[in-house]
Design goal:
By secondary structure, this protein is of the alpha/beta class. It is built from 10 helices and 11 strands. α3 (53-61) crosses α8.
């Protein structure tokens, strides 16, 4: 019996020592080697820089996200009628679903096809677009019901604009789809004005980034100005100051002779005062943050 107790005691000690050694060795076994760490830091990212407009246009039509330059900042674009693609914008950016998106189009006619306005509102819109487009002015109006609710955040309103940047307009023409696009950065981060800024912030997602020479990119550097056409109230409501100064809108209204423009007054209801690189390339926040006043979207616009 005594030898058996000795053997049992020895086995118990051996198990205890073995268990303690395993606990001590476990962190070392789990920790990656310096070589593995180096390989991980240089691993290729899903995001990719491209310089082909045809590739970017084809990617938009097939439902992929494409970051592209505008005269304001880089936008992260998706086919506005592709609900899954639009939803992925919010996922990639970490953007609240309550923030609507501005839709970028190649022409004023394409913008009119996305909104529902009476004769007076439509006449005002046409006069505004003739004076300020292409350029950093977003017009907010009641949206057509075919637009996915993710674009409008259920507000029933949509912001539309024709960008001034030549590369952006060429991309929109080749894609032949309206492109919903907020700024191409993580929500709350600085809005990007270079392709590399987008890669640094979002390249861990499978997006395409259309490259553009820095000298040719994002010259305005702040969000587009956002105004809502309120036919019932006879008001042109300034929801966000931006690339088109408020004074320019006031002078324009004062200079317009006859027609719908004379029946509208400018009402200022800004959400915030953007500074360079604040916001982004496709959406804007209204002062109340709800309903039609949030129709331009929050956290960045192109």
């Amino acid at each position: 019996r005594r030898p058996m107790r000795t053997a049992s005691f020895s086995a118990t000690c051996l198990l205890a020592v073995s268990s303690q050694s395993s606990r001590l060795l476990a962190p070392a076994l789990r920790a990656p080697s310096p070589r593995a760490m180096a390989a991980s830091s240089t691993a290729p990212r899903p995001g990719r820089l491209i310089d082909s407009l045809d590739e970017a246009a084809s990617a938009l039509r097939s439902g992929r996200l494409v970051a592209f330059p505008t005269e304001t900042v880089y936008g992260l674009g998706a086919d506005a009628f592709n609900e899954a693609s639009v939803a992925s914008i919010f996922t990639v950016k970490g953007r609240p679903r309550s923030d609507p998106l501005i839709v970028h189009v190649a022409s004023a006619g394409a913008a009119e096809a996305l909104v529902r306005l009476g004769p007076g509102g439509l006449e005002l819109m046409r006069r505004l677009t003739a004076s300020f487009w292409p350029g950093p002015l977003t017009l907010v109006a009641p949206a057509v019901p075919e637009l996915p609710s993710a674009v409008t955040s259920g507000s029933g309103y949509v912001g539309v604009r024709v960008p001034e940047h030549a590369l952006a307009r060429e991309l929109l023409q080749r894609a032949a789809v309206p492109v919903a696009a907020p700024s191409a950065n993580r929500f709350g981060h600085v809005s990007p004005t270079r392709a590399q800024h987008v890669m640094d912030d979002l390249a861990h997602h499978p997006i395409l980034v259309l490259d553009a020479p820095p000298a040719d990119c994002c010259g305005v550097g702040i969000e587009s100005t956002v105004v809502k056409i309120d036919e019932q109230a006879g008001e042109l409501v300034l929801l966000r100051r931006g690339g088109v100064p408020e004074a320019s809108l006031e002078r324009w209204l004062a200079a317009e002779q006859g027609g719908a423009a004379q029946r509208f007054t400018l009402k200022v209801k800004p959400a915030h005062q953007p500074t360079p690189h604040d916001g982004g390339s496709g959406a804007a926040t209204a002062s109340s943050g709800s309903g039609s006043e949030a129709a331009a979207g929050g956290g960045g616009a192109a």
